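Changelog excerpt

This revision adds worked examples to the README so contributors can see how folded entries look when concatenated. The first example is reproduced verbatim below.
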Amino acid sequence: MTNELLAQIDRVIQKRPLYKEALSTYRELVGLLEGIEPELPSVSKDEAVTEMKVEEGFPVFSREALPLDLKATSSLFPRLLEHLSSQKREDSKALRKVLDRVQIDPQWIERAITAFLSRDETTFTTMAQEVNLEPMTLKFVTSMALKPSLNALRKAVSEGIQKDTWHYGYCPLCGSSPDMASLDDQGKRMLHCELCGFEWRYPRLKCPFCENSEPKELGYFVSEEEAGFRVDFCKKCKVYIKTLDMRVVDSPAPLELENLITLHLDMLAHEQGFKTCHS
Protein backbone atom coordinates (compact mmCIF):
# COMPACT_ATOMS: atom_id res chain seq x y z
CA MET A 1 0.00 0.00 0.00
CA THR A 2 2.84 2.40 0.89
CA ASN A 3 4.79 1.71 -2.30
CA GLU A 4 1.64 2.22 -4.35
CA LEU A 5 0.98 5.59 -2.70
CA LEU A 6 4.58 6.69 -3.20
CA ALA A 7 4.29 5.82 -6.89
CA GLN A 8 1.07 7.87 -7.13
CA ILE A 9 2.74 10.86 -5.48
CA ASP A 10 5.68 10.66 -7.90
CA ARG A 11 3.25 10.47 -10.81
CA VAL A 12 1.38 13.56 -9.64
CA ILE A 13 4.62 15.51 -9.15
CA GLN A 14 5.83 14.55 -12.62
CA LYS A 15 2.53 15.41 -14.27
CA ARG A 16 1.82 18.52 -12.19
CA PRO A 17 5.20 19.89 -11.02
CA LEU A 18 3.44 22.93 -9.57
CA TYR A 19 2.50 20.75 -6.59
CA LYS A 20 5.98 19.35 -5.94
CA GLU A 21 6.55 21.53 -2.90
CA ALA A 22 3.14 20.80 -1.45
CA LEU A 23 3.64 17.05 -1.78
CA SER A 24 7.33 16.75 -0.91
CA THR A 25 6.84 16.71 2.87
CA TYR A 26 3.90 14.35 2.57
CA ARG A 27 5.97 11.99 0.42
CA GLU A 28 8.74 11.92 3.00
CA LEU A 29 6.28 11.03 5.74
CA VAL A 30 4.65 8.33 3.62
CA GLY A 31 8.12 6.87 3.13
CA LEU A 32 8.40 6.44 6.90
CA LEU A 33 5.33 4.20 6.80
CA GLU A 34 7.03 1.71 4.50
CA GLY A 35 7.53 -1.72 6.01
CA ILE A 36 5.08 -1.20 8.87
CA GLU A 37 2.66 -4.12 9.07
CA PRO A 38 0.08 -3.53 11.80
CA GLU A 39 -1.32 -6.46 13.75
CA LEU A 40 -4.99 -5.69 14.10
CA PRO A 41 -7.03 -7.09 16.98
CA SER A 42 -9.39 -9.86 15.98
CA VAL A 43 -11.82 -8.46 13.41
CA SER A 44 -15.09 -10.28 12.83
CA LYS A 45 -15.67 -11.02 9.16
CA ASP A 46 -19.22 -12.21 9.69
CA GLU A 47 -20.76 -10.84 6.50
CA ALA A 48 -24.29 -11.33 7.83
CA VAL A 49 -23.59 -9.05 10.80
CA THR A 50 -21.84 -6.50 8.61
CA GLU A 51 -24.67 -6.39 6.09
CA MET A 52 -27.29 -6.12 8.83
CA LYS A 53 -25.53 -3.18 10.50
CA VAL A 54 -25.12 -1.40 7.17
CA GLU A 55 -28.74 -2.00 6.19
CA GLU A 56 -29.86 -0.45 9.48
CA GLY A 57 -27.70 2.62 8.98
CA PHE A 58 -24.97 1.78 11.48
CA PRO A 59 -21.30 1.88 10.48
CA VAL A 60 -19.38 -1.36 10.98
CA PHE A 61 -17.27 0.36 13.66
CA SER A 62 -17.46 3.59 15.61
CA ARG A 63 -14.41 5.83 15.55
CA GLU A 64 -13.92 5.35 19.29
CA ALA A 65 -13.91 1.54 19.00
CA LEU A 66 -11.88 0.98 15.86
CA PRO A 67 -9.80 -2.22 16.17
CA LEU A 68 -6.39 -0.68 15.47
CA ASP A 69 -2.80 -1.55 16.28
CA LEU A 70 -2.14 1.23 18.79
CA LYS A 71 1.33 -0.15 19.54
CA ALA A 72 2.39 0.35 15.92
CA THR A 73 0.75 3.77 15.88
CA SER A 74 2.50 4.86 19.08
CA SER A 75 5.90 3.74 17.77
CA LEU A 76 5.40 5.59 14.50
CA PHE A 77 4.27 8.83 16.17
CA PRO A 78 7.72 9.92 17.45
CA ARG A 79 9.37 8.94 14.17
CA LEU A 80 7.10 11.35 12.34
CA LEU A 81 7.77 14.07 14.91
CA GLU A 82 11.52 13.56 14.70
CA HIS A 83 11.49 13.88 10.91
CA LEU A 84 9.29 16.98 10.85
CA SER A 85 11.20 18.72 13.64
CA SER A 86 14.46 18.22 11.72
CA GLN A 87 13.13 20.21 8.76
CA LYS A 88 13.31 23.97 8.29
CA ARG A 89 9.84 24.75 9.59
CA GLU A 90 8.45 27.61 11.64
CA ASP A 91 7.03 25.11 14.12
CA SER A 92 10.20 22.99 14.44
CA LYS A 93 10.70 24.08 18.04
CA ALA A 94 7.13 23.14 18.94
CA LEU A 95 7.47 19.77 17.21
CA ARG A 96 10.64 19.09 19.16
CA LYS A 97 8.76 19.99 22.34
CA VAL A 98 6.10 17.40 21.47
CA LEU A 99 8.83 14.84 20.82
CA ASP A 100 10.38 15.55 24.21
CA ARG A 101 6.96 15.24 25.84
CA VAL A 102 6.15 11.82 24.33
CA GLN A 103 9.59 10.49 25.25
CA ILE A 104 9.00 11.46 28.88
CA ASP A 105 5.33 10.44 28.92
CA PRO A 106 4.55 7.71 26.33
CA GLN A 107 0.88 7.76 27.38
CA TRP A 108 0.63 11.29 25.94
CA ILE A 109 0.41 9.71 22.48
CA GLU A 110 -2.42 7.42 23.54
CA ARG A 111 -4.34 10.38 24.98
CA ALA A 112 -3.88 12.31 21.72
CA ILE A 113 -5.08 9.36 19.65
CA THR A 114 -8.11 8.86 21.90
CA ALA A 115 -9.06 12.55 21.70
CA PHE A 116 -8.57 12.54 17.92
CA LEU A 117 -10.71 9.45 17.31
CA SER A 118 -13.45 10.54 19.74
CA ARG A 119 -13.55 14.04 18.22
CA ASP A 120 -12.80 15.54 21.63
CA GLU A 121 -11.78 18.93 20.24
CA THR A 122 -11.41 20.53 23.67
CA THR A 123 -8.91 17.98 24.97
CA PHE A 124 -7.06 17.76 21.66
CA THR A 125 -6.72 21.54 21.32
CA THR A 126 -5.57 21.85 24.92
CA MET A 127 -2.89 19.20 24.36
CA ALA A 128 -1.66 21.01 21.25
CA GLN A 129 -1.58 24.37 23.01
CA GLU A 130 0.42 22.93 25.91
CA VAL A 131 3.29 22.27 23.48
CA ASN A 132 2.72 25.47 21.44
CA LEU A 133 1.72 23.50 18.35
CA GLU A 134 -1.17 24.26 16.02
CA PRO A 135 -3.98 21.70 16.56
CA MET A 136 -4.18 21.09 12.80
CA THR A 137 -0.51 20.05 12.74
CA LEU A 138 -1.01 17.67 15.64
CA LYS A 139 -4.06 16.24 13.87
CA PHE A 140 -2.00 15.70 10.74
CA VAL A 141 0.73 13.83 12.64
CA THR A 142 -1.86 11.73 14.46
CA SER A 143 -3.66 10.81 11.25
CA MET A 144 -0.38 9.84 9.57
CA ALA A 145 0.56 7.63 12.52
CA LEU A 146 -2.84 5.92 12.28
CA LYS A 147 -2.69 5.45 8.50
CA PRO A 148 -1.07 1.96 8.38
CA SER A 149 -3.62 0.52 10.80
CA LEU A 150 -6.53 2.23 9.05
CA ASN A 151 -5.38 0.98 5.66
CA ALA A 152 -5.09 -2.55 7.02
CA LEU A 153 -8.54 -2.35 8.58
CA ARG A 154 -10.12 -1.05 5.37
CA LYS A 155 -8.51 -3.86 3.41
CA ALA A 156 -9.72 -6.46 5.93
CA VAL A 157 -13.41 -5.53 6.05
CA SER A 158 -14.31 -3.34 3.07
CA GLU A 159 -15.25 -6.27 0.84
CA GLY A 160 -18.14 -7.08 3.17
CA ILE A 161 -19.70 -3.64 2.76
CA GLN A 162 -22.17 -3.11 -0.07
CA LYS A 163 -21.30 0.48 -0.89
CA ASP A 164 -24.18 0.79 -3.38
CA THR A 165 -26.78 0.22 -0.65
CA TRP A 166 -25.40 2.78 1.79
CA HIS A 167 -27.19 6.12 1.43
CA TYR A 168 -25.82 8.12 4.34
CA GLY A 169 -23.40 11.03 4.47
CA TYR A 170 -21.08 9.30 6.93
CA CYS A 171 -18.67 6.44 6.28
CA PRO A 172 -20.18 2.93 6.49
CA LEU A 173 -16.90 1.56 7.85
CA CYS A 174 -16.01 4.01 10.63
CA GLY A 175 -18.80 6.60 10.78
CA SER A 176 -16.56 9.56 9.87
CA SER A 177 -17.48 12.44 7.56
CA PRO A 178 -16.29 12.73 3.95
CA ASP A 179 -13.47 15.13 3.13
CA MET A 180 -13.82 15.01 -0.66
CA ALA A 181 -16.08 13.68 -3.41
CA SER A 182 -15.73 12.51 -6.98
CA LEU A 183 -17.95 12.04 -10.00
CA ASP A 184 -17.33 8.79 -11.91
CA ASP A 185 -17.54 8.15 -15.65
CA GLN A 186 -21.33 8.05 -15.45
CA GLY A 187 -21.57 11.18 -13.34
CA LYS A 188 -22.42 9.26 -10.17
CA ARG A 189 -21.10 10.71 -6.95
CA MET A 190 -18.68 8.98 -4.58
CA LEU A 191 -17.70 10.25 -1.14
CA HIS A 192 -14.26 9.70 0.38
CA CYS A 193 -13.89 9.17 4.14
CA GLU A 194 -11.63 11.68 5.85
CA LEU A 195 -10.36 9.09 8.33
CA CYS A 196 -10.13 5.60 6.82
CA GLY A 197 -10.26 6.45 3.10
CA PHE A 198 -13.27 4.24 2.30
CA GLU A 199 -15.41 5.41 -0.65
CA TRP A 200 -19.15 5.02 -1.09
CA ARG A 201 -21.95 6.25 -3.36
CA TYR A 202 -24.14 9.20 -2.42
CA PRO A 203 -26.85 11.14 -4.33
CA ARG A 204 -25.50 14.15 -6.22
CA LEU A 205 -28.41 16.43 -5.33
CA LYS A 206 -28.22 15.94 -1.59
CA CYS A 207 -26.02 17.49 1.08
CA PRO A 208 -24.05 14.76 2.88
CA PHE A 209 -23.88 16.87 6.03
CA CYS A 210 -27.49 17.97 6.65
CA GLU A 211 -29.31 15.82 4.03
CA ASN A 212 -30.80 18.91 2.39
CA SER A 213 -32.08 18.00 -1.09
CA GLU A 214 -33.69 21.28 -2.16
CA PRO A 215 -32.13 22.16 -5.54
CA LYS A 216 -32.40 25.90 -4.86
CA GLU A 217 -30.31 25.53 -1.70
CA LEU A 218 -27.56 23.47 -3.32
CA GLY A 219 -24.91 24.82 -5.68
CA TYR A 220 -21.31 24.70 -6.77
CA PHE A 221 -18.55 26.79 -8.26
CA VAL A 222 -15.70 25.55 -10.41
CA SER A 223 -11.96 26.02 -10.19
CA GLU A 224 -10.61 28.57 -12.65
CA GLU A 225 -7.08 27.21 -12.21
CA GLU A 226 -7.72 23.61 -13.20
CA ALA A 227 -10.59 22.03 -15.12
CA GLY A 228 -12.45 19.18 -13.49
CA PHE A 229 -12.44 20.50 -9.93
CA ARG A 230 -15.39 22.13 -8.21
CA VAL A 231 -16.76 22.99 -4.80
CA ASP A 232 -20.24 21.74 -3.93
CA PHE A 233 -21.95 23.72 -1.20
CA CYS A 234 -25.17 23.78 0.79
CA LYS A 235 -26.80 27.12 1.59
CA LYS A 236 -28.74 25.57 4.45
CA CYS A 237 -25.86 24.32 6.62
CA LYS A 238 -23.14 26.43 4.93
CA VAL A 239 -20.86 23.40 4.54
CA TYR A 240 -18.92 22.56 1.37
CA ILE A 241 -17.08 19.60 -0.12
CA LYS A 242 -14.50 19.62 -2.90
CA THR A 243 -15.33 17.43 -5.88
CA LEU A 244 -13.20 15.92 -8.62
CA ASP A 245 -14.93 15.16 -11.94
CA MET A 246 -13.37 11.96 -13.30
CA ARG A 247 -14.94 12.65 -16.70
CA VAL A 248 -12.74 15.72 -17.12
CA VAL A 249 -9.52 15.08 -15.20
CA ASP A 250 -7.07 12.85 -17.03
CA SER A 251 -5.53 10.15 -14.80
CA PRO A 252 -6.61 11.65 -11.47
CA ALA A 253 -4.66 10.95 -8.30
CA PRO A 254 -6.16 9.22 -5.26
CA LEU A 255 -8.51 11.59 -3.47
CA GLU A 256 -6.28 11.86 -0.41
CA LEU A 257 -3.65 13.45 -2.67
CA GLU A 258 -6.10 15.59 -4.63
CA ASN A 259 -7.36 16.89 -1.30
CA LEU A 260 -3.86 18.04 -0.34
CA ILE A 261 -3.18 19.89 -3.59
CA THR A 262 -6.51 21.71 -3.84
CA LEU A 263 -6.13 23.97 -0.82
CA HIS A 264 -6.86 26.94 -3.08
CA LEU A 265 -10.43 25.63 -3.35
CA ASP A 266 -10.70 25.55 0.44
CA MET A 267 -9.62 29.18 0.54
CA LEU A 268 -12.20 30.17 -2.07
CA ALA A 269 -14.94 28.34 -0.19
CA HIS A 270 -14.06 30.06 3.08
CA GLU A 271 -13.96 33.44 1.34
CA GLN A 272 -17.52 32.85 0.15
CA GLY A 273 -18.73 32.06 3.65
CA PHE A 274 -18.73 28.26 3.59
CA LYS A 275 -17.01 25.91 6.03
CA THR A 276 -15.93 22.30 6.37
CA CYS A 277 -18.01 19.97 8.52
CA HIS A 278 -15.23 20.14 11.14
CA SER A 279 -15.18 23.95 11.41
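The second example, added in the same revision:
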Amino acid sequence: MENTVPRRRLEDLAWPDVRRGAARPGSTVIWPFGAIEQHGPHLPLATDALFADRLCDAVLERLDPALPIWRLPLQSLGFSPEHAGFAGTLSLSPDLLIALVVQIGTQLAEAGFRRLVLLNAHGGQIGLLEVAARQLRAGTPQLAVLPCFLWRGPEGIGELIPEPERSQGLHAGLAETSLMLHLRPELVGPARPADGPGLAPPPGWSLEGEAPASWLTREISTSGVVGDAGGASPQLGAELFERLVQGWQRRLEALLRSDWPPTPGSD
Protein backbone atom coordinates (compact mmCIF):
# COMPACT_ATOMS: atom_id res chain seq x y z
CA MET A 1 0.00 0.00 0.00
CA GLU A 2 1.29 3.45 -0.89
CA ASN A 3 2.35 5.61 2.06
CA THR A 4 0.20 8.75 2.02
CA VAL A 5 1.86 10.39 5.04
CA PRO A 6 3.77 13.41 3.71
CA ARG A 7 7.40 14.01 4.58
CA ARG A 8 7.16 17.36 6.31
CA ARG A 9 10.83 17.77 7.25
CA LEU A 10 12.59 19.71 4.55
CA GLU A 11 15.91 18.00 5.28
CA ASP A 12 14.34 14.61 4.48
CA LEU A 13 13.61 15.61 0.89
CA ALA A 14 15.81 15.34 -2.19
CA TRP A 15 16.46 18.60 -3.99
CA PRO A 16 14.08 17.92 -6.92
CA ASP A 17 11.29 17.35 -4.37
CA VAL A 18 12.15 20.64 -2.70
CA ARG A 19 12.04 22.44 -6.04
CA ARG A 20 8.63 20.97 -6.86
CA GLY A 21 7.30 21.73 -3.40
CA ALA A 22 8.50 25.32 -3.40
CA ALA A 23 6.84 25.88 -6.78
CA ARG A 24 3.41 24.98 -5.42
CA PRO A 25 1.04 27.91 -4.77
CA GLY A 26 1.30 29.04 -1.17
CA SER A 27 4.34 26.90 -0.35
CA THR A 28 5.19 27.45 3.31
CA VAL A 29 8.09 26.65 5.62
CA ILE A 30 7.74 26.68 9.40
CA TRP A 31 10.87 27.21 11.50
CA PRO A 32 10.64 26.45 15.24
CA PHE A 33 12.73 28.62 17.58
CA GLY A 34 13.61 27.94 21.18
CA ALA A 35 16.43 28.78 23.57
CA ILE A 36 19.02 27.11 25.78
CA GLU A 37 18.62 28.95 29.06
CA GLN A 38 18.00 28.36 32.73
CA HIS A 39 14.46 27.40 33.72
CA GLY A 40 14.80 27.29 37.48
CA PRO A 41 16.07 24.36 39.56
CA HIS A 42 13.46 21.94 38.21
CA LEU A 43 13.20 22.35 34.41
CA PRO A 44 15.80 21.65 31.69
CA LEU A 45 17.71 24.29 29.79
CA ALA A 46 15.99 23.19 26.58
CA THR A 47 12.45 23.86 27.85
CA ASP A 48 11.52 26.46 25.20
CA ALA A 49 13.26 24.52 22.44
CA LEU A 50 11.45 21.31 23.35
CA PHE A 51 8.07 23.09 23.39
CA ALA A 52 8.63 24.61 19.94
CA ASP A 53 9.80 21.33 18.44
CA ARG A 54 7.01 19.16 19.83
CA LEU A 55 4.27 21.66 19.04
CA CYS A 56 5.51 22.05 15.47
CA ASP A 57 5.42 18.30 14.87
CA ALA A 58 2.01 17.87 16.51
CA VAL A 59 0.44 20.62 14.40
CA LEU A 60 1.93 19.33 11.15
CA GLU A 61 0.61 15.83 11.89
CA ARG A 62 -2.95 17.20 12.04
CA LEU A 63 -2.84 19.30 8.89
CA ASP A 64 -4.34 18.09 5.62
CA PRO A 65 -1.58 16.05 3.92
CA ALA A 66 -2.30 17.90 0.68
CA LEU A 67 -1.29 21.29 2.10
CA PRO A 68 2.13 22.59 0.97
CA ILE A 69 3.98 23.02 4.25
CA TRP A 70 7.35 21.77 5.52
CA ARG A 71 9.47 22.43 8.57
CA LEU A 72 13.10 23.31 9.18
CA PRO A 73 15.18 21.77 11.97
CA LEU A 74 14.74 23.34 15.37
CA GLN A 75 16.80 26.47 16.06
CA SER A 76 17.54 25.70 19.69
CA LEU A 77 20.01 28.49 20.48
CA GLY A 78 18.41 31.89 20.85
CA PHE A 79 18.74 35.34 22.39
CA SER A 80 18.70 35.01 26.20
CA PRO A 81 20.77 37.76 27.86
CA GLU A 82 18.17 38.23 30.60
CA HIS A 83 19.13 34.81 31.99
CA ALA A 84 22.88 35.42 32.08
CA GLY A 85 24.52 34.53 35.37
CA PHE A 86 22.77 31.17 35.67
CA ALA A 87 24.92 28.19 34.68
CA GLY A 88 24.11 26.71 31.28
CA THR A 89 22.43 29.72 29.71
CA LEU A 90 23.75 30.21 26.17
CA SER A 91 22.84 33.29 24.14
CA LEU A 92 23.48 34.43 20.58
CA SER A 93 24.05 38.10 19.88
CA PRO A 94 21.08 39.99 18.39
CA ASP A 95 23.03 40.71 15.19
CA LEU A 96 23.84 37.03 14.75
CA LEU A 97 20.25 35.86 15.20
CA ILE A 98 18.91 38.52 12.82
CA ALA A 99 21.55 37.60 10.25
CA LEU A 100 20.65 33.91 10.58
CA VAL A 101 16.97 34.57 9.89
CA VAL A 102 17.73 36.88 6.97
CA GLN A 103 20.24 34.54 5.34
CA ILE A 104 18.16 31.38 5.62
CA GLY A 105 14.95 33.18 4.72
CA THR A 106 16.55 34.72 1.64
CA GLN A 107 17.67 31.31 0.44
CA LEU A 108 14.19 29.88 0.96
CA ALA A 109 12.76 32.75 -1.08
CA GLU A 110 15.30 32.14 -3.83
CA ALA A 111 14.24 28.48 -3.88
CA GLY A 112 10.68 29.65 -4.57
CA PHE A 113 8.95 29.32 -1.20
CA ARG A 114 6.20 31.87 -0.58
CA ARG A 115 5.93 31.95 3.20
CA LEU A 116 8.13 31.53 6.26
CA VAL A 117 6.56 31.09 9.71
CA LEU A 118 8.89 31.69 12.67
CA LEU A 119 7.30 29.65 15.48
CA ASN A 120 9.02 30.98 18.59
CA ALA A 121 8.63 29.60 22.12
CA HIS A 122 10.99 32.00 23.95
CA GLY A 123 9.42 35.22 25.18
CA GLY A 124 12.75 37.02 25.43
CA GLN A 125 13.25 37.08 21.66
CA ILE A 126 9.78 38.05 20.47
CA GLY A 127 10.79 41.59 19.54
CA LEU A 128 14.09 40.51 18.01
CA LEU A 129 12.44 37.98 15.69
CA GLU A 130 9.89 40.61 14.67
CA VAL A 131 12.79 42.88 13.67
CA ALA A 132 14.45 40.00 11.79
CA ALA A 133 11.17 39.24 10.00
CA ARG A 134 10.74 42.84 8.88
CA GLN A 135 14.35 42.97 7.71
CA LEU A 136 13.88 39.76 5.72
CA ARG A 137 10.58 40.92 4.25
CA ALA A 138 12.14 44.20 3.10
CA GLY A 139 14.81 42.31 1.18
CA THR A 140 12.56 39.55 -0.19
CA PRO A 141 9.10 41.06 -0.81
CA GLN A 142 7.98 37.88 -2.55
CA LEU A 143 8.22 36.02 0.78
CA ALA A 144 5.64 36.47 3.53
CA VAL A 145 7.32 36.30 6.95
CA LEU A 146 5.20 35.63 10.03
CA PRO A 147 6.95 35.85 13.43
CA CYS A 148 4.74 34.06 15.96
CA PHE A 149 4.95 33.45 19.71
CA LEU A 150 3.82 29.98 20.75
CA TRP A 151 1.80 31.18 23.75
CA ARG A 152 0.22 34.16 22.00
CA GLY A 153 -2.80 33.54 19.80
CA PRO A 154 -4.43 30.19 20.62
CA GLU A 155 -7.73 30.66 22.40
CA GLY A 156 -8.50 29.40 25.88
CA ILE A 157 -4.96 29.35 27.28
CA GLY A 158 -5.44 32.13 29.81
CA GLU A 159 -8.56 30.64 31.33
CA LEU A 160 -6.60 27.57 32.40
CA ILE A 161 -4.14 29.63 34.46
CA PRO A 162 -5.51 31.43 37.54
CA GLU A 163 -4.45 34.91 38.58
CA PRO A 164 -1.99 36.15 39.67
CA GLU A 165 -0.02 33.43 37.90
CA ARG A 166 -1.67 34.27 34.57
CA SER A 167 -0.10 37.75 34.53
CA GLN A 168 2.92 37.24 36.79
CA GLY A 169 4.06 33.69 35.96
CA LEU A 170 6.58 34.73 33.34
CA HIS A 171 9.17 31.97 33.52
CA ALA A 172 9.30 28.34 34.72
CA GLY A 173 6.03 28.72 36.60
CA LEU A 174 2.74 26.86 36.52
CA ALA A 175 2.20 26.71 32.75
CA GLU A 176 5.71 25.72 31.67
CA THR A 177 6.15 23.20 34.48
CA SER A 178 2.80 21.58 33.69
CA LEU A 179 3.54 21.42 29.97
CA MET A 180 6.90 19.78 30.62
CA LEU A 181 5.26 17.30 33.01
CA HIS A 182 3.04 16.30 30.09
CA LEU A 183 5.70 16.17 27.38
CA ARG A 184 8.87 15.03 29.18
CA PRO A 185 8.12 14.25 32.84
CA GLU A 186 11.47 12.50 33.32
CA LEU A 187 13.19 15.89 32.83
CA VAL A 188 11.25 17.64 35.62
CA GLY A 189 12.83 17.83 39.07
CA PRO A 190 10.89 17.54 42.33
CA ALA A 191 11.07 21.23 43.31
CA ARG A 192 8.02 23.43 42.75
CA PRO A 193 9.49 26.87 43.48
CA ALA A 194 7.69 30.18 43.75
CA ASP A 195 9.93 33.17 43.14
CA GLY A 196 9.97 36.54 41.47
CA PRO A 197 9.95 40.26 42.06
CA GLY A 198 9.53 41.36 45.64
CA LEU A 199 8.75 44.87 44.47
CA ALA A 200 6.08 45.35 41.80
CA PRO A 201 6.66 47.89 39.01
CA PRO A 202 5.05 51.32 39.48
CA PRO A 203 1.32 51.61 38.73
CA GLY A 204 0.66 51.40 35.00
CA TRP A 205 3.87 49.46 34.33
CA SER A 206 4.56 45.73 34.17
CA LEU A 207 7.40 43.29 33.61
CA GLU A 208 5.76 42.20 30.35
CA GLY A 209 2.65 43.18 28.43
CA GLU A 210 1.53 46.79 28.20
CA ALA A 211 4.12 49.43 29.20
CA PRO A 212 6.80 46.81 29.95
CA ALA A 213 10.02 47.32 31.86
CA SER A 214 13.06 45.34 30.72
CA TRP A 215 14.19 42.93 33.42
CA LEU A 216 17.11 40.66 34.21
CA THR A 217 16.28 37.43 35.99
CA ARG A 218 19.12 37.64 38.51
CA GLU A 219 17.74 40.99 39.71
CA ILE A 220 14.30 39.65 40.57
CA SER A 221 14.78 35.93 41.30
CA THR A 222 17.36 33.86 43.13
CA SER A 223 16.08 30.54 41.75
CA GLY A 224 15.59 31.61 38.14
CA VAL A 225 11.82 31.19 38.45
CA VAL A 226 9.49 34.14 37.89
CA GLY A 227 6.14 32.79 38.99
CA ASP A 228 4.77 29.89 41.03
CA ALA A 229 5.22 26.29 39.90
CA GLY A 230 3.12 24.98 42.79
CA GLY A 231 0.06 23.11 41.56
CA ALA A 232 1.68 22.10 38.27
CA SER A 233 0.34 18.82 36.90
CA PRO A 234 0.55 16.67 33.78
CA GLN A 235 -3.22 16.99 33.42
CA LEU A 236 -2.98 20.76 33.12
CA GLY A 237 -0.05 20.31 30.75
CA ALA A 238 -2.07 18.00 28.52
CA GLU A 239 -4.92 20.51 28.30
CA LEU A 240 -2.51 23.36 27.57
CA PHE A 241 -0.83 21.35 24.83
CA GLU A 242 -4.12 20.40 23.21
CA ARG A 243 -5.30 24.00 23.09
CA LEU A 244 -1.96 25.16 21.73
CA VAL A 245 -2.05 22.53 18.98
CA GLN A 246 -5.65 23.31 18.07
CA GLY A 247 -4.99 27.04 17.97
CA TRP A 248 -1.94 26.83 15.75
CA GLN A 249 -3.59 24.24 13.53
CA ARG A 250 -6.44 26.67 12.86
CA ARG A 251 -4.09 29.54 12.13
CA LEU A 252 -1.87 27.57 9.78
CA GLU A 253 -4.84 26.12 7.92
CA ALA A 254 -6.23 29.63 7.43
CA LEU A 255 -2.86 30.82 6.15
CA LEU A 256 -2.34 27.87 3.83
CA ARG A 257 -5.80 28.26 2.28
CA SER A 258 -5.32 31.99 1.71
CA ASP A 259 -3.67 34.03 -1.04
CA TRP A 260 -1.31 35.81 1.36
CA PRO A 261 1.09 37.47 0.71
CA PRO A 262 -0.07 40.08 -1.79
CA THR A 263 1.84 40.10 -5.03
CA PRO A 264 4.56 42.80 -4.86
CA GLY A 265 3.35 45.92 -6.56
CA SER A 266 -0.33 44.91 -6.44
CA ASP A 267 -3.01 47.26 -5.14
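Reviewer comment on example two: The mean pLDDT is 94. The domain at 10-256 is CATH 3.40.50.10310 (Rossmann fold).
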